[in-house]
Design brief:
The complex is a heterodimer. Helix content of chain A is 29%, strand content 14%. By secondary structure, chain A is an alpha+beta fold. Chain A has one domain (21-145). In chain A, a hairpin with a 7-residue loop joins strand 2 and strand 3 (51-57). The model of chain A has no long low-confidence stretch (mean pLDDT 90). Chain B is of the alpha+beta class. Chain B folds into 4 domains: 9-106, no CATH class; 118-214; 219-334; 346-430, Beta Barrel (OB fold (Dihydrolipoamide Acetyltransferase, E2P)). Chain B has 15 helices and 13 strands. Chain B has helices at 3-10, 17-33, 39-52, 59-70, 76-105, 124-140, 147-151, 154-161, 167-183, 194-207, 284-292, 324-331, 392-396, 441-450, 453-464, and strands at 219-237, 240-250, 257-266, 294-304, 308-309, 316-321, 352-357, 360-364, 367-372, 375-379, 398-407, 411-422, 425-430. In chain B, the strands form 2 sheets. In chain B, strands 7, 8, 9, 10, 11, 12 and 13 form a 7-stranded mixed β-sheet that branches. Chain B has a 6-stranded mixed β-sheet with strand order 5-3-2-1-4-6, with helices on both faces. The longest helix of chain B has 30 residues, at 76-105. The model of chain B has no long low-confidence stretch (mean pLDDT 93). Classes of the chains: A alpha+beta, B alpha+beta.
């Protein structure tokens, strides 16, 4: 075991960040586990120009949903239960990262038999608590901005440290 | 590669490699704990690293740098000098390993000749931003890294990405920062990728010197001729993908030589698997040659001193069908290998194309090995990208394999293509088979179900970014 560990610590090409699973991006283009929250951007079902920023906070399981312009989500008056945007966020996060990783991050005890985002939401008992939308939205824009950066054919030798690896087996 | 050659490659450790890597390990351990709190053992490790360089041109400066860092007054210059020392040690290790490999394969390698370099672009503010972040990391040590220190690099990385000449720095720092972010707070991690992060840190620091990172990226001229593809290697982290096509160039008046062609594109972590190819859509001729196994006729394509073609898709035309296995059988043994640019001499970059056949395979606990004339070669089956059809099962069922010989603590074969027998039928699979879209019906269906991630994000970007 110690020999394995020493060999691992002395390798140059390793996977450090767990890969994410492919999923449909149409409804929830952006999901991340960051800043102590599961947070993301959910496209509005009715207005193509509008998106919602939704989040669950780790530990307290407080939840929030508002437009990117910081208007509260109409489906989320205080004291109610999570809106459909939050349900979509949880469902897509479970597809992207796997239930275990999301539950661990949010510190939710999902127990046996849980498998979906709906299971995850049903096992949280938080309250509405406004979280800042602007920060998440700007991170989403930064994320999108990668696709605007031009490709290049000058070799990047540094990428030898980042081999494309197969699925986790 | 035949059994005798493999025997020669694996025969006895390469002299000096373990000793050099021990010195590196001491330095890497210092980076784990931070140069601000070295303690006696790690101070001795830095002195030992500097001592090993005593007889080199770096010697005096490395000695001074180690002394100052141990005394607690590390400056950017001192850190850069020691990073240079670590790089020099890896350079020596790389050379010893590559010489062993070339000798075993009987491969002739061109000598390094540097083309006169043009002046490097000046982006001094940005590069000094990189250096101060890297210095901060070194002083803090990996164990002290948390979200705040990682986020401190965000603006610098964003600015680097906007400058085409600084793409290498941008992609490297972005990859390192993502790993540190995913691992934060690093102090709670059970084990640390100490060698890897020290590699990335060292590399980044040297690339961020004013004028750094340009060696080998000056075209030594342009070439025309027929390019016969051997296979494609894929590199990927959350926000970048690079394909590197290995091939043999036949041009009038020169013997066949090994060359590479690369395309790299920024991406996001949710674009994975066969969708990666869609990011490279501006290179249809190259992708078509991969998918259809064709040769390429190239005209006036710039060639770097490192043996890398700087690909211009409009200077290439699809040629006749060309089987990479046939190319390897006929041309690989006699092809001239390119020189390695001085700064790129690190074992991680060793990726020599070989053809292996006439072996038997063995599978144990997910690991696949090839027995070639009584010598055992480990196959790196982790390194089979999800954007292509190769699987460990296919490798285990194979009878011939085109791949890259790599070294990461030991020699391995990274498959690029295999010929196998599945259900008594011959099957051939190449990493680049899906370059124009997947050909496996099951994968096509899965892709259709998942939708076009690239298109969805581009639509969102078009609507939300420019307002």
């Amino acid at each position: 075991m110690n020999a394995d560990r020493a060999a691992w610590e002395q390798r140059s090409a390793l996977r450090v960040v767990s890969p994410v699973q492919p999923r449909k991006l149409a409804k929830v283009p952006f999901v991340e586990l960051a800043d102590g929250r599961l947070q993301g951007v959910v496209s509005s079902g009715s207005d193509i120009e509008r998106v919602y920023v939704s989040s669950f906070t780790a530990g307290t399981h407080a939840y929030s949903c508002s437009t990117n312009n910081n208007r509260p989500c109409g489906a989320l008056p205080s004291g109610s239960s999570p809106c459909k945007h939050l349900h979509l966020l949880a469902a897509e996060a479970v597809l992207q990262y796997g239930l275990d990783r999301v539950a661990r991050y949010l510190r939710v005890d999902v127990g046996d038999g849980a498998s979906s985002g709906a299971d995850l939401v049903s096992r949280m008992d938080g309250q509405v608590e406004r979280a800042p939308a602007a920060m998440v939205f700007s991170r989403f824009l930064r994320h999108l901005n990668y696709l605007e950066v031009p490709d290049t054919t000058v070799p990047i030798p540094e990428m030898h440290w980042f081999p494309a690896l197969g699925a986790v087996r | 590669m035949i059994g005798v050659q493999l025997g020669e490659l694996l025969d006895a450790p390469v002299p000096g490699v373990d000793e050099a890597l021990d010195l590196v390990a001491g330095f890497d351990d210092a980076l784990v704990h931070g140069f601000a709190r070295l303690g006696e053992d790690r101070a001795m490790a830095l002195s030992a690293l500097a001592g090993a360089l005593a007889a080199t041109p770096l010697g005096v400066r490395a000695g001074e740098a180690a002394e100052k860092i141990i005394a607690g007054s590390a400056t950017d210059e001192h850190l850069t000098t020691l990073a240079g020392g670590r790089t020099a040690l890896f350079g020596a290790v790389h050379d010893a390993l590559l010489t062993r490999l070339d000798t075993a394969l009987g491969r002739t390698r061109a000598a390094w000749e540097e083309s006169p370099s043009t002046t490097a672009p000046s982006a001094d503010n940005l590069l000094s931003g990189c250096r101060s972040w890297l210095n901060e990391l070194a002083i803090t040590g990996w164990r002290g890294v948390g979200h705040d220190l990682v986020s401190a690099a965000d603006q610098t990385i964003e600015a680097l990405l906007a400058v085409p000449d600084l793409r290498r720095q941008a992609v490297l720092l972005d990859g390192l920062a993502a790993e540190l972010r995913a691992s934060s707070p690093v102090g709670t991690m059970d084990r640390l990728p100490a060698r890897r992060w020290a590699d990335l840190w060292t590399r980044a620091l040297l690339l961020s010197r004013p004028g750094g990172g340009h060696s080998g990226s000056e075209p030594s001229g342009s070439v025309s001729g027929r390019l016969l593809i051997l296979g494609v290697d894929v590199h990927e982290h959350g926000t970048a993908v690079q394909i590197q096509v290995h091939g043999i160039l036949e041009s009038a008046g020169t013997p066949p030589r090994l060359v590479r062609a690369s395309v790299a594109a920024p991406k996001v972590d949710t674009i994975v698997g066969p969708a990666l190819w869609r990011l490279l859509h501006r290179y249809p001729v190259l992708l078509g040659a991969l998918a259809e196994q064709r040769s390429l006729d190239i005209t006036d394509m710039p060639l770097l001193d490192s043996g890398d073609l700087v690909w211009h898709d409009d200077r290439a035309g699809a040629g006749e069908p060309a089987d990479p296995f046939a190319t390897a059988r006929v041309l690989l043994a006699g092809a001239l290998a390119p020189a390695v640019p001085p700064l790129d001499r690190h074992p991680v970059r060793i990726s020599e194309p070989v053809l292996v056949e006439g072996y038997t395979t063995a599978t144990e606990g997910g690991a696949v090995t090839l027995d070639l004339g009584g010598h055992i070669l480990a196959v790196d089956v982790d390194r089979l990208p999800t954007c292509g059809p190769l699987t460990p099962e296919l490798v285990a069922a194979s009878t011939a394999c085109l791949g890259l010989i790599r070294w990461d603590g030991g020699w391995t074969l990274q498959p690029l293509a295999v010929q196998a027998t599945v259900k008594r039928k011959p099957v051939t699979a190449h990493n680049g088979d899906w370059a124009l879209g997947p050909t496996d019906p099951k994968v096509v269906k899965a892709e259709a179900k998942a939708g076009d991630a690239v298109a969805v994000l581009r639509e969102r970007a078009g609507r939300l970014l420019r307002r």
